[in-house]
TrEMBL record, chain A:
PANTHER family noted in UniProt: TRANSLATION INITIATION FACTOR EIF-2B, TRANSLATION INITIATION FACTOR EIF-2B SUBUNIT DELTA
Region (Disordered): 1-121, 161-274
Gene Ontology MF annotations: translation initiation factor activity
Native species: Arabidopsis arenosa (Sand rock-cress)
Family, per entry: Belongs to the eIF-2B alpha/beta/delta subunits family.
Subunit description: Component of the translation initiation factor 2B (eIF2B) complex which is a heterodecamer of two sets of five different subunits: alpha, beta, gamma, delta and epsilon. Subunits alpha, beta and delta comprise a regulatory subcomplex and subunits epsilon and gamma comprise a catalytic subcomplex. Within the complex, the hexameric regulatory complex resides at the center, with the two heterodimeric catalytic subcomplexes bound on opposite sides.
Basic and acidic residues composition bias: residue spans: 1-15, 173-191, 244-272
Low complexity composition bias: residue spans: 22-54, 78-96, 192-225
Identification of the protein by name: Translation initiation factor eIF2B subunit delta
Subcellular location: Cytoplasm, Cytosol
Keywords: Cytoplasm, Initiation factor, Protein biosynthesis
Gene Ontology cellular component list: cytosol
UniProtKB/TrEMBL annotation, chain B:
Xref: Gene3D superfamilies: Translation initiation factor eif-2b, domain 2, Translation initiation factor eIF-2B, N-terminal domain
Subcellular location: Cytoplasm, Cytosol
Taxon lineage: Eukaryota, Viridiplantae, Streptophyta, Embryophyta, Tracheophyta
Name of the protein described by the UniProt record: Translation initiation factor eIF2B subunit alpha
Chief location bin: cytoplasm
Organism: Arabidopsis arenosa
Gene Ontology CC terms: cytosol; eukaryotic translation initiation factor 2B complex
Amino acid sequence: MESRRNPRAVVDPKVRQVGFFTSSQPDSSSTQQQPDPISSTSASSPPLSTISPSGNSLSPVMIPPPLHNSSDTFPLRAAAAGAAASAVSPSSFSYSSRRDFPDGSTTASPGRHSRGSFVKSSVPVASSLPGIGMDSMAAAKSSSVPASGLTTVSVVTMPPGLSEKASGMEVQSDQKKPLKEKTTKAERRAIQEAQRAAKAAAKADGGKVAPVNAASVASTSVKAAKPGKATSQKNDVAVAAGAAEKKGGPSEKDRKKDAPHPRMQYDDESRVVKAKRRAVVKQTEAKNRVELFRHLPQYEHGTQLPDLETKFFQLDPMHPAVYKVGLQYLSGDISGGNARCIAMLQAFQEVVKDYSTPPEKSLNRDMTAKISSYVSFLIECRPLSISMGNAIRFVKNRIAKLPITLSESEAKAALQSDIERFINDKIIGADTVIVKHAVTKIRDGDVLLTYGSPTAVEMVLLHAHELRKKFRVLVVDSRPKLEGQLLLRRLIKRGINCTYTHINAISYIMHEVTKVFLGASSVLSNGTVYSRVGTACVAMVANAFRVPVLVCCEAYKFHERVQLDSICSNELGDPNAISKVHGREDINYLDGLTNNANLQFLNLMYDATPSDYISMIITDYGMVPPTSVPVIVREYQKEHLLV
Amino acid sequence: MWRRSPSFILDERRSSNSPPMADTTRGPFQNPDSISAYYQTRAAHHGVITSDWLAQAQAAVGRVTGEDQPLSSDNQLGTEKSFNVIEEFNNWRKQPDLAEAVAAIRALAAVIRASEASTMMELEIELKKASDTLKSWDKTSISLTAGCDLFIRYVTRTSALEYEDFNSAKSRLLERAEKFGEISCKARRIIAMLSQDFIFDGCTILVHGLSRVVLEILKTAAQNNKLFRVLCTEGRPDGTGVLLSSELSKLDIPVKLLLDSAVAYSMDEVDMVFVGADGVVESGGIINMMGTYQIALVAHSMNKPVYVAAESYKFARLYPLDQKDMAPALRPIEFGVKIPTKVEVERSARDYTPPQYLTLLFTDLGVLSPSVVSDELIQLYL
């Protein structure tokens, strides 16, 4: 990690931020641990929403800044902050140089106001700057526009000397904790005054301010580096001014907050919980990660399992069934969207069965909290799939909707049967309906291509074979999982005529294919199919050959999210899986290079297939074009709540 | 293309005892040499679409019946119990201005009327059986299937019926069935009104096939004193374009006949393409008279809009992936010269136009883009 990040630290930003400065903020706490929870809670606290009525503070439109050297000349980067589309001053979030804002003052963009409560984080930093503090203060301007009550832009300057220091600090991110200081209201006010003065000064000689801030760049990286900790609401957080970097501690944190809010598989809340629960699963983070994917958690595999096993008896809050499932996720014993989802739901059933309401608590609330904590444990073991997210939403919804009049045993029975029904109707039942529909599309003489080992497609093929349709199957597979071999085994056992090839041969083999059947981890509301990595490639080649692509996906895996690429939300697999070939000692060319700073492994688990390449999605609601996924989502969600 | 690939040839050789691919695809169709009943209806209607042709149509009724009976008799043998439905349906569908879906619904209404069921459940089962017979009687007709499905859905999904006593529920169903026929006629008026905004003075419209809706649209446009020109494709082998052009010329609309093969040649002077549809499928594509697909392709490549006029009862829960993915509706083709027996003739009467080549659909639900069709279908059937 160090080796990777050192160079970047030089580049690190110097400050900046946008914040809504009010004097009525709560004091920031002196300890390191507190800020996270605070910021997270404030993120969701009601006052917030009143502050930013436009509600866009949560969805910043961020332009991830490129890497700049400190010597670059973008003194003013109005980065971050929820600069929404509505932004009055669009230039404020582009890399505008200070010249754009000659008066060095604020750009008032309505979309940009951030939570007032975050000012606290900027303050300690500022106050802690000793010498340089004022310099950078001068550079950093932040003021609020009284009229609009909006926030301001900030700027950063950082003398080159500083940056080295900063980088040094940055490396040891773990040591930052004690450094955070607490400021009083008075202090903060004083600082604000100072900033204003500085701004005036800056106005005077606008062009001078040299350096840069690559703040957001750095923050991205930092945050990616420590996904667990990152309280992912970096975006609209008001941030520290000046030489934040000097203090390893606060700066580190600030930057984390500043980082653009990525589309995460888990939202803020659960990420915080995750951070808290970190103690349970000690996953080591992988060291060299590909730049573009730093926002995704990646762990080194193989270390945590024995550790967890020994801990089994110490973890009283964890239900053994959940624990077991978690371990199975971790070790990869259970994989595949449906299998994981069913395992989780069955574990929850166990939980419900063994549950007894603690005194002084209500079942609804306590059970929801319990489920949440289990979910965060499962997330630590492996990031949730979207289908699991939907299932969890269902379970929580059911719990919340339990009538208070029910006795505990009745409530438990009702919940158990609800979960049972979800498994039977939405997963198993859905598959049989999908099979029924899909089989109608298989004609005699077809050559069907499938990729990986999608369970729904396997059922379709087996059923079609039972109906004595004459077809051949082409199983396309890819390293490192080689799941296709399992599918192949099962198909051959039933006497289906199969061909097996790797994805490298796809363009050769595609011209004899008549239909492509794919599975999906999720289908998003713009019709994008989120699936095992390589699926997009297969779909694109098929499209180029004018071969229809059919996606089999149960409707409970649909999600209203929109995703345009595979970058912002994905899962990183074990890098070792692609660096090594099992059983081939002779070709392990990468031995010993795993920790080389110049080498990064990217083992992506999923990719997004644009809807253009998909002819049809087969769900339990029938065969629909990818354009009507939103309709299904809408209808399904409705039903979801009524179930 | 895929059949040429080496592994395929190997496969063929290995299982040379199995029939060749082309035959197996045709296998499921029961009687490849028979003429699609759906096509016959269409042919009959084409002769009688307006009042002028009405007389001929009525004269033809007798003749058509004669042809129909032998054809459908084999089907009827199996379903003796409900041959009523089909007879009823055949009576209705001979009415020239009545769409097939409406005929089906009228036939089903007759089933309700004749039914001796005493509970709603019984009636439903009976109705279901009747609609299944109807559907299986002519698998090639999309609007027949769609009409049956729609009606059954109304019967089984209407909550208003639950609280009434059986007799009033029954009469309400009948009422609804009657209304449906009117709606179908009204639908054409609605579509014609909706489409007026798209026809501007001085435009040239290419029309393919003989669609009652399209004719209605053009008529309305002429009544509104719009100045436009129509190019009609010939529409081999039925000569639908010839019929349409004579209709249009009666309305004093300048019209020009084209060979089917001259579409690309004259496409650059065309401003928009109007076609009807036999069925609108779930993807938003349409199934229509043979040749629509290639016209849509040509129009698409020249950036001309392709408008489809179709009533909403033609929306079908079908999803063809390609041209061969439907039950083919076969028809006889006259070439004027003797065709050697060894020469195969493509006799399918219709093709499938994928949604990406269509611009807009004019329906009684409004002017829809192709992707909305599926939304409507989901809301209709789910």
